[in-house]
């Protein structure tokens, strides 16, 4: 599945990095890094991260970020 | 009625089952000065703006009405925890506490707790067998998070009863109860807080020589680049984590269970599609937030909020639960919609003091409510609705929730 994080919206609350630590991670204390393509076994955790983002900066799924490419 | 009495009416115990009409009245007035000189804010944009404003202090020393009890406690060597401090001290202490709790240094700790939490939840639910009536607070929503925070910190389970008694006194001391002398109550609260902090400090010190895989061991054992806690800082931080890990999640789970019983269609939908539960938990945090308002803030200088000047040092009360139902921000705010999109609620606050334990609370609430829905049938219902509530208008939730299932 594809993942796109709008890093302009991201404020470093790191909720995604708690909930899907293999997909989202912090570089230093606030800058977010993430893997843009992950296998389907991460689907549930990624879904939790999407729901938990306080600024709703994450989209995930086959069409995520389609408008960005 | 005059908006000058709004806070009195909100804190009146009679308003506890349904404070939302009062919050609507507050939103209509933007910023409401109270008869005691404090200011109440309940509109979404203004609350968010204030939560992100560095001129708004969380430090009790910034208040014009200095708390004598606090000064006495500090003269005795106690230090406030980071919830009651401003940056840069807040950031330093929160950073040290975060090191063993979450990313970047401990990214998997909460994730790794999930199986444990699910097992504890299942054991509690198995205890429902053979009983027609259960108390979702005493039998489920209370023991779950308390067991989890106890294990996370590394507290022997036999000591949790004493910690519960201290916690109850500390929480009662934060309350607005017209029947009691506030000075006496605050003193009692500080004494209980001190005993709890001493206990946790001794326990942490004993982990220095015998470390184990818990937070207290990590907090005394592994200083990062920020340095380590001083002993007094460690004590107040451990007490904060324990207290904040107590009632808040209890209320999130209980408010959640009650809301789902009141909305059988949403409950049915979640039974069929547990993948919707993370979004439902966010909606619960908006619709029935366990922390209804933040009473501890004050401006460092005169500031203007929605055309009203709030003077330096005045108590500034941010009503998160009112902002969460602001129709200017959320369409149909009084509707519980477990699939709501664009849900930037303030259930965990926002800005630098945004809830430290949020990731743990989310995991616990999701697991607890999923397990509960799987166990109680669609015909489960509260014996009384509204149920009896706890006293506190801040940490709002049912004291008991008797359910026939």
Walk me through the structure.
- The complex is a heterodimer of chains A (69) and B (405).
- Chain A has a two-stranded antiparallel sheet. Chain A has a two-stranded antiparallel sheet with strand order 2-3.
- Chain A has helices at 15-19, 43-52; strands at 2-5, 24-27, 31-34, 58-61.
- Chain A contains two helices and four strands.
- Chain B has one domain: Cytochrome p450 (Orthogonal Bundle), CATH 1.10.630.10.
- Chain B is built from 18 helices and ten strands.
- In chain B, a hairpin with a 2-residue loop joins strand 6 and strand 7 (308-310).
- In chain B, helix 11 (182-209) crosses helix 13.
Number of domains of chain A: 1
Q: Based on DSSP secondary structure assignment, what is the total number of beta strands of chain A?
A: 4
CATH class of chain B, please? Answer: Mainly Alpha
Largest interface: A-B, 23 and 25 residues
Q: What is the total tally of β strands of chain B?
A: 10
The dominant shape of chain B is globular
The CATH topology of chain B is given as Cytochrome p450
Radius of gyration of chain B: 21 Å
Number of helices of chain A: 2
InterPro entries (chain B): Cyt_P450, Cyt_P450_B, Cyt_P450_CS, Cyt_P450_sf
Family (chain B): Belongs to the cytochrome P450 family.
Protein name (chain B): Cytochrome P450
Organism (chain B): Streptomyces qinzhouensis
Key traits:
heterodimer, A: 69 residues, alpha+beta, Alpha-Beta Plaits, two-stranded antiparallel ribbon, 2 helices, globular, B: 405 residues, Cytochrome p450, 5-stranded mixed beta sheet, 3-stranded antiparallel beta sheet, 18 helices, 10 strands, 8% strand, iron (chain A), iron-sulfur (chain A), 3 iron, 4 sulfur cluster binding (chain A)
